[in-house]
Design brief:
This protein is mainly alpha-helical. 66% of the residues lie in helices and 0% in strands. The chain has two domains: 202 residues, Orthogonal Bundle (Hypothetical protein af1432); 76 residues, no CATH class.
């Protein structure tokens, strides 16, 4: 099922289940689209959203952050966490707001957000030599790349639970393939439909849509290539691979794009436990 058919299906059959784009998402993306934005600017935007602000203060006071003295304000929390963490966490919390993934009994919040944050870090590293605008777009697109799974867990909880069970039990190699089989469309298409409905920037929509699209690789824009690379690395990490398989799937092409991809993967592996601790502190064990 393609994006247009899926949008038509959910608008005609379950319009009441279509999530409204949170105002915080639109505002955060607008602010972060400014190449000159800094931590103070981001902090001023976040303070308009008490739920996000409280979670950031909580993260700054968590065992992961381990402050010497309690962090009691958003300004102090943002200063302690740093721009990268505040940015990613704020967008993650804003995007998660309209979805009730708890309806799906197999949905693992910590695992989902660990994957999302790993992808964001990987895409940012792959875009290291790009402009700041491209680098931030790659990070955001990678962070949102599996948001279709959030919607599926809410909209089709039973089918999504079956898909996740198929992966856990080894009947399917990936969550996207499993949701395609059980739900009729992969979470990549679901995420593209939601991003389109929310009228997110086209560069984000395209990257979400093409994260598994191995046809026409040379026609992909820079951000889509970076997100595809990040998705491949996060999948390898989920399998416990110490090194990337140089001959697997799209990896030879990715290696041509980034000769240093093995070093980037090593960096992602080295920070994986830290990333999982952030996800656990924010979204539970």
């Amino acid at each position: 099922m393609d994006v247009r058919k899926l949008l038509h299906k959910i608008e005609s059959e379950a319009k009441e289940r279509l999530p409204v784009v949170p105002a915080s998402v639109s505002q955060l993306l607008k602010v972060l689209g400014d190449a000159d934005v800094g931590l103070a600017d981001l902090s001023r935007v976040v303070e308009n959203y008490p739920t996000i602000a409280m979670r950031l203060i909580g993260l700054a006071n968590s065992a992961w952050s381990a402050p010497a003295t309690p962090v009691t304000s958003l300004t102090l929390a943002c200063g302690r966490l740093g721009f990268r963490v505040v940015r990613s966490v704020s967008i993650a919390l804003a995007v998660a707001e309209p979805f009730n993934a708890a309806l799906c009994k197999r949905f693992d919040n910590r695992k989902f957000w660990t994957t999302s944050l790993v992808r964001a870090d990987a895409a940012s590293l792959l875009a290291d030599r790009e402009t700041r605008e491209t680098r931030e777009s790659a990070r955001t697109a990678a962070l949102l790349s599996n948001m279709g799974l959030l919607w599926l867990a809410d909209y089709m909880p039973r089918e999504t639970a079956d898909a996740l069970a198929d992966v856990d039990d080894g009947r399917q190699a990936s969550v996207n393939a499993a949701t395609l089989d059980r739900c009729g469309f992969g979470y990549d298409i679901a995420g593209t439909a939601i991003a389109t409905y929310w009228k997110l920037p086209s560069v984000l929509v395209s990257a979400i849509q093409h994260q598994y699209d191995t046809d026409g690789l040379e026609q992909l824009d820079a951000v889509s290539r970076q997100v595809m690379g990040a998705v491949q690395m996060s999948h390898a990490l989920s399998l416990g691979m110490e090194q990337l398989d140089p001959d697997s799937g799209v990896m030879p092409w990715l290696r041509q794009q980034w000769p240093n991809i093995d070093r980037i993967y090593a960096d992602i592996r080295a920070s994986a436990d830290d990333t999982a601790e952030v996800a656990a502190a924010l979204f539970g064990d």
